[in-house]
Give the backbone structure.
Amino acid sequence: MSNEVCVVGSVALDSVETPGGRADDQLGGSCSYFSLAAAFFAPVNMVGVVGRDFPDEKRDFLASRGINMDGLDTVDGDTFRWSGRYHENMNVRDTLDLQLNVFESFNPRLSEACRKSDFVFLANIIPSVQAGVLEQFDSPLIVGADTMDIYIDDAREDLEALLKNVDLLSINDSEAVQLAGEANVVRAARRILDMGPDTLLVKRGEYGALQFSADDIFAVPAFPLETVVDPTGAGDCFAGGLFGSLAEAGEVNRRSLRRAVVYGSVVASFAVEGFGVEGLRQVEREDVERRFREFMALTDFHTE
Ligand code: AMP
């Protein structure tokens, strides 16, 4: 049994505009956010690809958090780029530009060490890349995945095939509705569980998250913040905190999953306090624990 997390997904340079400002060429991508979040709890192996334009300073930051980047290839070409703009209501955003670049021909071979990982997460990227990575693992304890609207539309067949081999799917509420073709989120969740996953995490931005399994529903609020600077990557940090916490617990059951969902919510709350990954830069494990305790106080209705 290894408590290592292995994650494949996008490693990006993001440009983000919010009602409060903008930031260009930020470290982003589902794999980067996930890894930074999971690394608070467990050893993390990143699997992804960047171009020769990827700055050393961004690589150094990831390495400074103890993330193993042996699986991050550097190839000729440009790094994946994404840009988005948030509305006044920051739960709503438009993608302005998306360039897969080096991801278009990405076909990684996992190292021996990665193949043995028990905690595997297929962060958001083309479903065929997710599937190509998944088939290389020996026998993971749990496989999680994320996806997004464009893949639900354009790569549904690949995605549905992948879901048969996924234990935990983490998506947002509008994606759940889109994937299930069902407007009620609880009924949508039932349909998605029928597609393969045992556990579905539905993220609802500032309204928190719902975790569904065949016989259980668990609800957590988002940590209430006065200022949200940039929600980009909150979902990936949620999943990273969740998987890191599961790996630290070393077991997957109702109790470890519920605790992991709260850690996911806590780490996501730090991520949105700055542009890009800046919200996480100064955060240490003790800060995560402090906010975890505040979170328990926030939701406790047994004591008085
Ligand atoms: P989130 O806010 O959790 O949806 O994650 C935002 C991150 O996803 C950004 O850092 C983007 O670089 C990355 N991203 C955006 N679109 C895609 C895509 N089509 N495939 C993979 N990653 C993406």
Remarks:
- The domain at 5-12+28-43+109-299 is CATH 3.40.1190.20 (UDP-N-acetylmuramoyl-L-alanine:D-glutamate ligase).
- The mean pLDDT is 96.
- The longest helix spans residues 254-271.
